[in-house]
Amino acid sequence: MPAGRPGPAAQSARRPPPLLPLLLLCVLGAPQAGSGADTAVISPQDPTLLIGSSLQATCSVHGDPPGATAEGLYWTLNGHRLPPELSRMLNASTLALALANLNGSRQQSGDNLVCHARDGSILAGSCLYVGLPPEKPFNISCWSKNMKDLTCRWTPGAHGETFLHTNYSLKYKLRWYGQDNTCEEYHTVGPHSCHIPKDLALFTPYEIWVEATNRLGSARSDVLTLDILDVVTTDPPPEVHVSRVGGLEDQLSVRWVSPPALKDFLFQAKYQIRYRVEDSVDWKVVDDVSNQTSCRLAGLKPGTVYFVQVRCNPFGIYGSKKAGIWSEWSHPTAASTPRSERPGPGGGACEPRGGEPSSGPVRRELKQFLGWLKKHAYCSNLSFRLYDQWRAWMQKSHKTRNQDEGILSSGRRGAARGPAR
Amino acid sequence: MLPAAGEPAAGDSWGMLACLCAVLWHLPAVPAHNRTGDPGPGPSIQKTYDLTRYLEHQLRSLAGTYLNYLGPPFNEPDFNPPRLGAETLPRATVNLEVWRSLNDRLRLTQNYEAYSHLLCYLRGLNRQAATAELRRSLAHFCTSLQGLLGSIAGVMAALGYPLPQPLPGTEPTWTPGPAHSDFLQKMDDFWLLKELQTWLWRSAKDFNRLKKKMQPPAAAVTLHLEAHGF
């Protein structure tokens, strides 16, 4: 251990003469500038090695007074003392070490190989970097938020475990315009991601690739070619409102606004709605909602709270032929269906047992039937809305009709039950 | 308070580091309070004390993570390597009598100079290989340390002491020798964190002592009243 440092008392006067720092610098300039104690040098200093390779290292002592010996020295690697059979004295002042079949470095800052004096004090150290060269990164995927920026993600090759610090660099260039650019904002959506915030061109494809470099080599991913317009995503639709449909117990109406950021651009938005019952984790998805800003959910349970979310895909923006990228889901909105006023299943005659008056398959078939009718029977007034209006009327007048003669109501209900089979 | 301009680039940028340190030295004094009708330096001393405790807490978790990154034996509890390159670090350790006899100005000056140096070195601790998370934690700590410096400057201004200006040639330049190995760098990092820790412990005591000195002598007033038969 070096001795002879300025005593603590000297430190309290914090105005050292200008000469002192220079003296200190001179002293520090020489490596291992000890003063009156043994010091040593390990060779090689900070080597980089492939996993499985071997290492021959030496610890050479040169103390003063001269004649310092390598007797009694020992090695530790990452704090663990190495078995004595791995070391041998090359000469009086040098201790050698032979390591074989090295494992990958325990930490990316390098394995700590240390040469200790007999009393355990540290004489010298060397950082070993043992690992693998990087493998090709792959699976690059990118998206642009409202055509303003580009975020890309990739998967590092070999599951990222090279045991060495590996630097990833995302590069991009416009296909016919030469100049390579490097992305600067990393780790925006996870460890292997980068964000390009501005100066993006439309209508010309970009070439994008990732370069991985570490001490042992480098690798480059395949080039991804993409057009910004093909990978556009947007914000979730704002102002999602869910409300009841009159007195209908099995329906809720969902309304939203098309995302404002893209409202100036010509596009056919696609939407998806998903909903679930309050206590459930199973979402039901309504998929074919094209370019509308409202939708009616049907076949729901009465008197139940539902959570609803909507998301948007700006597909076909500026004539892009590809599907865009779905936005995040909107914040969940909740609403409840009206309680059922009719007696429970099996109680009232108008309730088809076990099912709702307009369950999914029934509605689908009815829709198809009405569509066919419109085409072939020229009933242009027919529409699904008309069917719903009829059902609403049926439920409202159920109470009053109950007072009517039973035969009449059951007759009507029989008719109503016809399509429900 | 002038924010120091960004992080120096990694690699051979010690000259830039010296420049950065020079910038820090020339920070203007920032008065902590409006001078007219102000409650005295008491509140800002308290604030500075609180900051040292907060920083001490922050450092504990930062140092733990950083030393794990350096790997064993650096993260072992009794690790005590030789202090080779760390000679220019401001040493917090001081003889008890000397410490007690420091006047307020000297006490504050020593704290201010120490943290200016330490902040400088911490900013240079931009190890390329460290994880993004570690770099973020370091940057966050540097910002907090900058806040502490500002707070100390505020106390000094409130007490009417000028901020220490460096003499030409004494700017803290911690220039490693050309053969500065990675292992030596690790040892330097270790001692930097250790010294930071010691300074924060000491500063808490420094500011506690200052706080006690600044308290109005209430006891004297009471005695005076008693003497008049009240």
TrEMBL record, chain A:
Keywords: Disulfide bond, Glycoprotein, Immunoglobulin domain, Phosphoprotein, Receptor, Repeat, Secreted, Signal. Residues 1-36 form the signal peptide. It is found in: Secreted. Its main location: secreted. One of its GO terms (cellular component) is receptor complex. Gene3D superfamilies: Immunoglobulins (2.60.40.10). Residues 136-231, 236-340 form the Fibronectin type-III domain. Residues 411-421 have a biased composition (Low complexity). SMART domains: FN3 (SM00060). SUPFAM superfamilies: Fibronectin type III, Immunoglobulin. Residues 331-362, 398-421 are annotated as: Disordered. GO terms for molecular function: ciliary neurotrophic factor receptor binding; cytokine activity; cytokine binding; cytokine receptor activity. GO terms for biological process: cell surface receptor signaling pathway via STAT; negative regulation of motor neuron apoptotic process; positive regulation of cell population proliferation; ureteric bud development. PANTHER family: CYTOKINE RECEPTOR, CYTOKINE RECEPTOR-LIKE FACTOR 1. Belongs to the type I cytokine receptor family. Type 3 subfamily. This is Cytokine receptor-like factor 1. It comes from Physeter macrocephalus.
Automatic annotation (TrEMBL), chain B:
InterPro entries: 4_helix_cytokine-like_core, PRF/CT. GO terms for molecular function: ciliary neurotrophic factor receptor binding; cytokine activity. The keyword Endoplasmic reticulum does not apply. Pfam families: PRF (PF06875). It is found in: Secreted. Its main location: secreted. GO terms for cellular component: CNTFR-CLCF1 complex; CRLF-CLCF1 complex; extracellular space. Residues 1-32 form the signal peptide. Keywords: Cytokine, Glycoprotein, Secreted, Signal. GO terms for biological process: cell surface receptor signaling pathway via JAK-STAT; negative regulation of neuron apoptotic process; positive regulation of B cell proliferation. The keyword Secreted applies. In complex with CRLF1, forms a heterodimeric neurotropic cytokine that plays a crucial role during neuronal development. Also stimulates B-cells. Binds to and activates the ILST/gp130 receptor. Forms a heteromeric complex with cardiotrophin-like cytokine CRLF1/CLF-1; the CRLF1-CLCF1 complex is a ligand for the ciliary neurotrophic factor receptor/CNTFR. The CRLF1-CLCF1 heterodimer binds SORL1 (via N-terminal ectodomain); within this complex, the interaction is mediated predominantly by the CRLF1 moiety. The tripartite signaling complex formed by CRLF1, CLCF1 and CNTFR also binds SORL1. This is Cardiotrophin-like cytokine factor 1. It comes from Physeter macrocephalus.
